[in-house]
Amino acid sequence: MANKNIRIGNFTIGESSPIFMIAEIGINHNGDLQTAKRLIDAAFACNWHCVKFQKRSPDLSVPEDQKNVLRDTPWGKMSYLEYRKKIEFGKKEYDYIDEFCREKPIYWTASVWDMSSLKFLLSYDIPFIKIPSAKLTDKNLLSEAGKTSIPVILSTGMSSLEEIDEAVGILEKAAGGNYILMHTNSSYPTSYEDLNLRVITFLKKRYGCIVGYSGHEYDLEPTVVAVSLGAKIVERHVTLNHNMWGSDHFASLEVHAMAMLYKRLIDIDTIMGDGVKKVTNAELEVRKKLRGH
After folding, report:
1. pLDDT tens digits, residue range 169-208?
2. Count of domains in the chain?
3. Which of 105, 108, 154, 258 is the most exposed place for a label (fewest CB within 10 A)?
4. Confidence (pTM)
5. 6 forms bridges with which residues in the sheet?
6. How big is the chain by its Cα radius of gyration, in Å?
7. What is the separation, in whole angstroms, between the first and last Cα of the chain?
8. CATH value at residue 51
């Protein structure tokens, strides 16, 4: 049975906890450490709790039929494999990111796409391991991530219910309930008719676990609705500018939108209340005036 409360760094994530916000930098740094630093600065300034990158071993994670496909890039035309290696951060960059985030402080972690990347990430004191939707069916990766005793956050985009059932079964066995599921749709950007936010309550009921939301839509309102439906973690892609080169920038939040979303989400738990119907203290004086008692 999934844990009712999950510890992420100094935060306890549960039904009564404030929202935990993850700024998905992903590969929106375009291989440039200075861009990554600016996005970390932005997340920290907007009061988000964690920044997240993506960690791949390109030789392992790029499909064979894609490796030699030519692609136009800011560095000229090159194979897709060369491009993936060009934008991949290694130990030097992550050592810097680790120190930079500690000084803020803000948490950081990365989505892992292969076993080598999981091993690499475990050399740092990360608050959780993220398994992206694309790797939900990688049984070995799920199992090894679950055995680490570090919380696992698993995105469920482009996955059937049967595939999610099997993944949850692996995490139950390996992680002992120390996992969180993220509702998401893997299209970029996601249209309204594909968001299906009621799946959040479905996942909570079916698996009895904490559920979050990873949004790829253009705007802010669906994420606000997701939190109102019970999502306890929010993950959104972030960028310095929608017009930057790269596939994820257009469906990401610019810095001003990060600040706007934080302000919209921070009071939702207070607004939603505890669901118990009662006369509030503020109503007592009005009641006395209008009813006489």
Report:
1. 999 999 999 999 999 999 989 999 999 999 999 999 999 9
2. 1
3. 105
4. 0.93
5. 13
6. 20
7. 49
8. 3.20.20.70
